[in-house]
């Protein structure tokens, strides 16, 4: 309760500061009592499946020297997501999920703990909560559970089962979720189709498909499809659906071997669901495959406004790449910044060809002051890169010493 | 049935030969005199290189029935110079002239030298060896694991109470890197129902722990060393029966008997059974079903952790015959069942999963000294074992520590079990054929050569009800290990040394969907040992081995993916092992003092290590590892009244990989020279015992024993990584045990009370896996010889 009030107090203070700073860009700095401090928090994933949650006083720390877990960091597994001034480490394993926060001395500490049985999809909501979807990987049950995680109480606020079978007659052909995004009173869950009849989890070609639910009741509304492109998102990474500042939802279809799909004739591209609607915008399709990038979009990360950062695989590289290459660190991917509103492309320069994101995605790109920060594996080394959103110029930052990924980067206040 | 008939035929054959051989024996007799021509009583008289041996009576007389031939008569007596003399025994017999022994002044100087025990003689070998005398622990409720856990360099990590999984660590090497033997026969083919955690102490006489360098006669491909359990062979007729009742509804029963008749017919019978509910309390928290939020920690009892096992071992044959020093056929039948209470940590609870196994083992053992010619001996052991193992994890229930359950939300017909990512009904049958041949030839009193060949043939057949595609089909492997050693001694037996070479042949075959994949390798190991007695009290030792270890079935084929997935591409691992040791033994009046210290160095390549892959694990050739360590033990005794022993082990195990492979790239290993994770580093033990005799009856004995065990904290993951404050650690443990035992009527009746972990501290060997707290036991034992 105290923390709750405390956080509200800080939120108000931050808001005031932000308002003040926006309105006084050209004015001389005014010394105000420093009531809000902040720290940058990142999860650092090592090849042996251990993870260390690190905190830095300055974002510059991401750009200089080495990032190392030697003697520092909180050892904790799971997939991390910055949410509502906490750093949530979501784990379905024995140790449970833990919400980390900065205490009043600025120390990153573990808060309450949560037991989650399954998690295949995670997404943010407008009201600073998170969606989690649990399912059976082998498809032995078509009932998946949608949950709402409340970071303030570190508990599940709402949960509802829904049948993800494509047809009620055949429970072996299933929709499989790849992401979740909430806009207003609707929850959008992009899916691909898989066949579990012979126990091999075979991915089938499909249209772009999104299942729509009411939020926060989680009641199923409808399933929408679009034949202009193929299945949306990638298994587990939650990087196939983005809500931009306008409230519109954009979906990203790779139609690529690298994304784990049998390739069809349609183009890789971006679809839009306008704010307040529950259907694809028939007038909007951003064809990435035929754009100047000449590539297939693999993953998308929100930047500012209507801009997103994407990683893509060139059209001529994908046919020769193994299926699911996005799980590998082999540097076959390139990056660009898209303005979704204007359908313009800005190639990222200064960032070498890089590897995939493995199972990491949502939360791995941190945006502040017109700059985006994310780690990339570029062959023998992995580094943080700072990307100027306006120019697309990338600058090499800190070297990851022991591991290859910073699966999540966030900023917390205290 | 076939085995039964074969046994009867063998029995008839042996009886016939035995009757025939009795007719060909001659008598050798004589008298031994000691100083001042007094008759020497209890002087050892033996024919060197044979099993013929006896003691003189109070008139100094001795008599033996032996085959005619040329022999060396060896007369030994504590404090006197040993005498060797050549004799020829003819058909009509031999009366040896009186032999007078001379005092050994050097040996008697200052201190009264006592005869060396068998255990002490074993300890004096050039190997880095710890010989654990089990006779002192016969009244204890401990199993072999708990006894071994008190020795230097050894740490046995247990995941719970009786019957739980354990990991034996020796100088930083663990699992299958250390090999176990029962009287020289590898135990890896015996299955889970016959392991160190269920064999009673009373069955064995001592345990030899070889560290780093392993004698060729064991025929082992051990990387870190070997443990050889030696059963009691010196007593011809006995019954040793015991029953123990202990906390957590624990029962142990054991009956060990041997019958030997005058004609050399032997019957060994060992039977033992164990049962425990293992319902000890642990400190855990459970999650609220609606909010999924974890609640505060509480004490809960284990409710699904029961263990039961039973074993019958029978062996029969002959000893001291012209055709064999012994020829024995044996049969072992054992079974066990273990309920599984928890997953990798206590955070995951199970209420239905279990494992069980059965083993059927037949054996043939043959030994003959002076075969065809004097000094040539042959020893042959073979076993054939059938082992069935099952792992059952099919429940869709989700238990909490209170024993309540709900049904899994995600889990239709074949999804997750309680512990693994899919439901499991995994059954595998293992067939093992093992043949060990040892041939030794004594060139003269100071030189010998020996040869070993060990063959292991392994085949597994697996079935899995919930998995349509079985990964490996019917995998198999063959191991052929050859060893040759040359031993030499000199400087009045103050010095001895050996040099040896080993060859390891390994061939695997994995059938998968009609296609057979095979691999094969040949590797050569070598080494040497040396020891020198600087004085009568002080001995130095050095040993070296370039050792190889071939991957085991569990490492290559896993357990059906329940906890370990297969990796048939594993290659042999190797290590350069070096030991230096100092041994001091002295005695003044009634004070006995002993000290031993060893320095160890291990440099391993292609180190096979278990690595986590998702929710399961897999073995991989991962690293180069260097282990350096020091251990030491101090012993003090006062007459027969008091013994005190304290030991400590420190070992450092670091990663020596400069580069690691990532996909097709070789990149610098940032953890080069870092201490490996999840390895005990410093531990020690202390043991104090008082023994009082003739308290109420003549020859009764009361023993009071206090022991303590210390293990320093160590980290689950790489110690150099992460802030120490929040790092996952296996905490420091310090436990104390007390025991009081009373024996009367010359040890015929024994009763013992024991309390382990008397302060009831929380004890962990693995991260978040709490072991039993304070436990009481009472043991009743009957022994007649």
From TrEMBL, chain A:
Keywords: Signal. InterPro entries: DUF4374. It comes from Flavobacterium frigoritolerans. The keyword Signal applies. This is DUF4374 domain-containing protein. It comes from the Bacteria. Residues 1-27 form the signal peptide. It holds the Pfam family DUF4374.
Automatic annotation (TrEMBL), chain B:
Keywords: Cell outer membrane, Membrane, Receptor, Signal, TonB box, Transmembrane, Transmembrane beta strand, Transport. It is found in: Cell outer membrane. Residues 369-758 form the TonB-dependent receptor-like beta-barrel domain. Gene3D superfamilies: Carboxypeptidase-like, regulatory domain, TonB-dependent receptor, beta-barrel domain, TonB-dependent receptor, plug domain. InterPro entries: Beta-barrel_TonB, Beta-barrel_TonB_sf, CarboxyPept-like_regulatory, Plug_dom, Plug_dom_sf, TonB-dep_rcpt-like. GO terms for molecular function: siderophore uptake transmembrane transporter activity. It is a multi-pass membrane protein. Signal peptide: none annotated. It comes from the Bacteria. Residues 124-226 form the TonB-dependent receptor plug domain. GO terms for cellular component: cell outer membrane. GO terms for biological process: siderophore transmembrane transport. Belongs to the TonB-dependent receptor family. This is TonB-dependent receptor. It comes from Flavobacterium frigoritolerans. The lineage of its organism: Bacteria, Pseudomonadati, Bacteroidota, Flavobacteriia, Flavobacteriales.
């Amino acid at each position: 309760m105290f923390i709750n009030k405390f956080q509200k107090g800080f939120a108000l203070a931050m808001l005031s500061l932000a308002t003040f700073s926006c309105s006084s860009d050209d004015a001389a700095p005014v010394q105000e009592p420093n009531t809000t401090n902040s720290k940058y928090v990142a999860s650092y994933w090592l090849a042996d499946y251990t993870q260390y949650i690190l905190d830095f006083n300055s974002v510059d720390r991401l750009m200089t020297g080495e990032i190392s877990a030697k003697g520092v960091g909180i050892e904790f597994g799971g997939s991390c997501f910055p949410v509502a001034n906490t750093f949530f480490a979501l784990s379905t394993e024995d140790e449970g999920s833990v919400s980390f926060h900065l205490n009043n001395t600025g120390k990153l500490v573990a808060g309450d703990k949560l037991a989650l049985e399954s998690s295949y999809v995670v997404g943010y909501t407008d009201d600073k909560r998170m969606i989690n979807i649990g399912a059976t990987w082998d498809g032995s049950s078509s009932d998946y559970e949608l949950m709402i995680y409340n970071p303030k109480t570190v508990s599940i606020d709402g949960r509802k089962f829904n049948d993800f079978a494509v047809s009620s007659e055949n429970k072996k052909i299933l929709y499989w979720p790849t992401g979740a995004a909430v806009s207003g009173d609707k929850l959008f869950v992009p899916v691909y189709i898989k066949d579990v009849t012979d126990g091999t989890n075979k991915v089938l070609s499909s249209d772009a498909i999104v299942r729509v639910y009411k939020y926060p009741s989680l009641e199923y509304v409808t399933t929408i499809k679009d034949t202009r492109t193929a299945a949306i998102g990638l298994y587990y990474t939650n990087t196939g659906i983005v809500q931009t500042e306008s409230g519109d939802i954009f979906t990203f279809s790779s139609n690529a071997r690298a994304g784990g799909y049998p390739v069809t004739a349609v183009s890789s591209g971006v679809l839009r669901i306008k704010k307040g609607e529950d259907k694809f915008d028939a007038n909007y399709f951003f064809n990435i495959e035929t754009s100047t990038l000449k590539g297939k979009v693999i993953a998308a990360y929100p930047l500012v406004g209507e801009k997103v950062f994407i990683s893509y695989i060139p059209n001529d590289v994908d046919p020769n790449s193994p299926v699911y290459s996005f799980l590998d660190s082999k540097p076959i991917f390139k990056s660009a910044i898209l303005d979704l509103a204007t359908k313009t492309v800005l190639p990222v320069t200064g960032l070498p060809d890089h590897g995939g994101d493995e199972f990491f995605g949502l939360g791995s790109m941190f945006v502040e002051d017109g700059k985006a920060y994310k780690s990339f594996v570029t062959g023998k080394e992995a580094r943080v890169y700072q990307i100027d959103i306006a120019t697309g110029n990338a600058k090499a930052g800190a070297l990851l010493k022991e591991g290859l990924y910073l699966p999540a980067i966030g900023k917390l206040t205290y | 049935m076939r085995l039964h008939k074969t046994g009867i035929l063998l029995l008839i054959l042996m009886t016939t030969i035995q009757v025939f051989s009795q007719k060909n024996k001659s008598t050798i007799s004589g008298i031994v005199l000691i100083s001042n021509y007094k008759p020497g009583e209890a002087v050892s008289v033996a024919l060197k290189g044979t099993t013929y041996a006896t003691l003189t009576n109070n008139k100094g007389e001795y008599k033996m029935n032996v085959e005619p031939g040329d022999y060396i008569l060896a007369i030994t007596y504590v404090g006197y110079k040993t005498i060797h003399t050549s004799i020829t025994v003819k058909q009509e017999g031999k009366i040896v002239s009186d032999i007078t022994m001379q005092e050994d002044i050097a040996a008697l100087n200052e201190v009264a030298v006592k005869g060396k025990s068998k255990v002490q003689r074993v300890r004096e070998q050039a190997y880095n060896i710890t010989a654990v005398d089990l006779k002192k622990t016969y009244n204890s409720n401990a199993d072999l694991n708990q006894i071994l856990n008190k020795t230097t360099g050894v740490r046995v990590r247990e995941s719970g109470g009786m019957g739980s999984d354990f990991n034996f660590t020796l100088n930083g090497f663990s699992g299958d890197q250390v090999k176990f033997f029962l009287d020289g026969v590898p135990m890896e083919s015996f299955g889970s129902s016959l392991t160190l955690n269920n064999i009673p102490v009373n069955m064995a006489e001592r345990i030899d722990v070889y560290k780093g360098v392993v004698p060729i006669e064991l025929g082992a491909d051990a990387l870190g060393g070997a443990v050889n359990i030696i059963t009691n062979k010196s007593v011809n007729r006995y019954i040793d029966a015991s029953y123990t009742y202990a906390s957590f509804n624990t029962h142990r029963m054991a009956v060990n008997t041997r019958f030997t008749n005058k004609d050399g017919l032997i019957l060994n019978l060992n039977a033992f059974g164990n049962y425990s509910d293992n319902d000890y309390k642990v400190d855990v928290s459970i999650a609220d079903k609606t909010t999924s939020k974890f609640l505060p920690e509480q004490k809960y009892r284990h409710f699904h952790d029961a263990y039961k096992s039973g074993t019958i071992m029978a062996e029969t044959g002959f000893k001291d015959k012209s055709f064999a020093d012994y020829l024995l056929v044996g049969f072992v039948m054992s079974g066990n069942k273990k309920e599984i209470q928890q997953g990798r940590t206590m955070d995951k609870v199970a209420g239905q999963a279990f494992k069980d196994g059965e083993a059927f083992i037949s054996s043939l053992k043959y030994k003959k000294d002076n075969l065809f010619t004097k000094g040539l001996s042959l020893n042959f052991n073979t076993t054939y074992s059938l082992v069935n193992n099952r792992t059952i994890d099919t429940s869709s229930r989700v238990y909490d520590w209170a024993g309540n359950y709900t049904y899994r939300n995600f889990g239709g017909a074949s999804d997750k079990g309680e512990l693994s990512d899919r439901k499991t009904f995994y059954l595998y049958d293992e067939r093992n054929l093992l043949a060990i041949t040892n041939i030794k030839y004594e060139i003269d009193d100071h030189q010998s050569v020996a040869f070993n060949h060990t063959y292991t043939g392994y085949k597994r057949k697996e079935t899995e009800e919930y998995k349509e595609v079985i990964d490996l089909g019917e995998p198999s492997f063959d191991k052929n290990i050859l060893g040759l050693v040359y031993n030499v001694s000199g400087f009045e037996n103050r010095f001895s040394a050996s040099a040896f070479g080993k060859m390891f042949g390994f061939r695997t075959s994995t059938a998968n969907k009609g296609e057979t994949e095979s691999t094969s390798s040949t590797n050569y190991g070598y080494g040497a040992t040396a020891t020198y007695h600087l004085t009568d009290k002080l001995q130095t030792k050095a040993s070296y081995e370039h050792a190889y270890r071939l991957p085991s079935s569990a490492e290559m084929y896993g357990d059906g993916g329940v906890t370990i997935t297969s990796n048939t591409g594993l290659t042999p691992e190797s290590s350069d092992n070096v030991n230096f040791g100092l041994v001091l033994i002295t005695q003044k009046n009634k004070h006995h003092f002993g000290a031993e210290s060893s320095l160890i160095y291990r440099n391993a390549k292609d180190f096979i290590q278990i690595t986590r892959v998702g929710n399961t694990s897999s073995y991989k050739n991962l690293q180069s590892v260097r282990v350096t360590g020091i251990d030491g033990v101090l012993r003090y005794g006062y007459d027969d009244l008091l013994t005190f022993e304290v030991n400590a082990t420190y070992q450092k195990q670091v990663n020596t990989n400069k580069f690691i492979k990532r996909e097709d790239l070789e990149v610098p290993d940032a953890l080069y020279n870092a201490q490996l994770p999840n390895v005990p580093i410093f531990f020690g033990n202390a043991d104090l015992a008082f023994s009082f005799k003739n308290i109420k009856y003549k020859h009764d004995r009361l023993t009071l024993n206090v022991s303590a065990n210390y293990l320093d904290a160590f980290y689950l993951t790489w110690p150099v990584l992460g802030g120490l404050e929040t790092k996952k650690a296996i905490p420091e443990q310090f436990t104390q045990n007390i025991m009081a035992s009373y024996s009367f009527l010359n040890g015929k009746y024994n009763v013992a009370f024991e309390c382990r972990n008397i302060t009831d501290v929380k004890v962990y060997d693995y991260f978040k896996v709490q072991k039993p707290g304070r436990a009481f036991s009472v043991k009743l034992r009957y022994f007649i010889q």
